[in-house]
């Protein structure tokens, strides 16, 4: 689904929305993956909207949000909270503000 996502934290610390924190427009999916008999991992992922000759495969635009939970929601926007992993193996609390409003997305 086409969405505009604002990342609201950097390494777990709250960012101020509106000060250089522009939203990223893409195709948001929430995926569930089964890794063994009882474990499911969910992730919200924002992909590029369209394939282009320069980028034939869909690109992940921002780091995935793992185990997302809806914290707040209205008719055009929702707040997701989850975890963002790093290459060093750390995990940080992350929040996304997601807008499905056509004028914002």
General description of the model:
By secondary structure, the protein is an all-beta fold. It has one domain. The chain is built from no helices and 8 strands. The chain has strands at 2-7, 9-10, 13-14, 24-34, 40-47, 65-73, 77-85, 91-99. The strands form 2 sheets. A 6-stranded antiparallel beta barrel has the order 1-4-5-6-7-8. The protein has a two-stranded antiparallel sheet with strand order 2-3. A hairpin with a 5-residue loop joins strand 7 and strand 8. The radius of gyration is 14 Å and the shape is globular. The N and C termini lie close together (10 Å).
Q: Could you give the order of strands across the largest sheet?
A: 1-4-5-6-7-8
Number of helices: 0
Parts with pLDDT < 50 across at least 5 consecutive residues: none
H and E string? EEEEEEEE
Proportion of residues in helical segments: under 10%
Q: How many separate domains make up the residues?
A: 1
Give the overall average pLDDT.
Answer: 81
Keywords:
105 residues, mainly beta, 8 strands
Short synopsis of the structure:
The protein is mainly beta. It is 0% helix and 53% strand.
């Amino acid at each position: 689904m086409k969405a505009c996502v604002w990342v609201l934290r950097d390494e777990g610390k709250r960012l101020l929305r509106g000060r250089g924190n522009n939203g990223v427009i893409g195709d948001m999916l929430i995926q569930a993956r089964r890794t063994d008999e009882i474990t499911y991992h969910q992730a919200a992922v924002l992909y590029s909207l369209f394939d282009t000759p320069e980028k034939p495969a869909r690109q992940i635009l921002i780091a995935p949000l793992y185990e997302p939970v809806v914290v707040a929601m209205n008719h055009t926007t929702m707040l997701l909270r989850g975890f963002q992993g790093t290459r060093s193996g750390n995990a940080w609390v992350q929040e996304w503000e997601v807008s499905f409003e056509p004028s914002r997305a």
